[in-house]
Amino acid sequence: MPAILRLLFPSVLLVAFVATLRAAETTLPNPLVLQRADPHVTLHTDGWYYFTATVPEYDRLELRRAKTIAALAGAEPKTIWRKHATGAMGSHIWAPELHHIAGKWYVYFAAGGAEKVWDIRIYVLENSAANPLDGEWIERGQLKTGWESFALDATTFEHRGTRYLCWAQKDPKIKGNTNLYLAKMDTPLTLAGQAVMLSKPDLPWEQIRYWVNEGPAFIARNGRVFIAYSAAGTGPEYCLGLLTASADADLLDPKSWTKSPAPIFTTNEKNGIFGPGHNSFTTTPDRKTDLLVFHARNYAEIKGDPLHDPNRHTRVQPIAWRADGTPDLGMPRPETAR
Question: Residue 267: is its pLDDT beyond 70?
């Protein structure tokens, strides 16, 4: 390749990448889905996008699917499960995630008891149908994390042949609300070995209103692995932090991970987006552009407890990658006309 082309080629690639990002931004409605918090989107090998999220009534689990991200907005949701009238799984049905593992579908979600609403634990549903909107969803019970306390926001991922579970849980011995933990899995329903704590809310921006690390989301790129997570309370202070490790590191060694000293995605008053958080990652259909899926409100002032405000809307926008291989989430985009 002539020297002049070698000099110009990176610039051509950059221009093309920026054009791709702008095209993605203009084709994605913002918000995407109204009143759906803790959104999780996965692009399956069948070419469908599958969407699930917390509903504002906190009483059921829904799924929807579409061939494009934008089409999820109008896709018909199907209720696949409802809370129990008594006992476990009877309240606070939160943060479902849909995963396809070894030929079956699994939904990981958090639930409190009907009588003890803050006894929140992680539970699992299983479905062997090819399309998770079909078939039978079977309750597989509580996913045991090694000790009993407030636990939620489970996500699972496979890295270099090993499957992991990452989640948020309260340790009564540690000041604050929830920390982030990681463990290997030996089945989609059970852990293999003891969990390790990856992060606790020890920075000032993680301690606003509540001391919280929650909502982990995994992505691997450029020889590294990343876990984005949500911090602080669920008002305009809600934001994303980032844990980073080398792709060949021992992920169960807390020393392998580095925490971002400042949040990487925060409220943007100019654009009118407040409290962005609890994200997941997906891609465009060609898998060339990574997408950030998250929830946020379009106002800062909330009457009463933010937990009871229903207007955390699902939003999606493209991610850029810096020259050093780290993700650049930019800032929350302003809303567009629906």
Answer: yes
CB-neighbour burial class of residue 208 (10 A; exposed 0-12, middle 13-18, buried 19+) = middle
Q: Report whether 61 contacts 81 (CB < 8 A).
A: yes
List, for residues 61-99, the tens digit of each pLDDT value: 999 999 999 999 999 999 999 999 999 999 999 999 999
Domains of the chain: residue spans and CATH: 3-328 (2.115.10.20)
* Report field, pTM of the whole predicted structure over 0.90: yes
Half-sphere exposure (CA, 13 Å, Cβ side) for 213?
A: 31
What is the per-residue pLDDT for 13? Answer: 44
Instruction: Answer yes or no: is pLDDT of 6 > 90.
Output: no
Query: Any residues with CB less than 8 A from the CB of 4 and at least 6 apart, and which?
Result: none
Average pLDDT, the chain: 93
Structure token pair of residue 73: 């907005």
Q: Where are the alpha helices (DSSP H) in the chain?
A: 3-27
Concatenating the DSSP letter of every residue in 70-86 gives GGGGGSPPEEEEE--SS
Contact 111, 90 (CB under 8 A): yes
* Token pair belonging to 177: 């609300």
Which pLDDT belongs to residue 12? 44
Residue 144 has pLDDT above 80, yes or no: yes
Token look-up 């948020």 returns 168
Q: Which positions are catalytic? A: 38, 214
Handedness of CA 46, 286, 230, 301 (dihedral sign): negative
Separation of alpha carbons 126 and 109, rounded Å = 12
Distance CA 179, CA 167 (A): 8
pLDDT at 40: 98
Task: Answer yes or no: are the C-beta atoms of 224 and 200 closer than 8 Å.
Answer: no
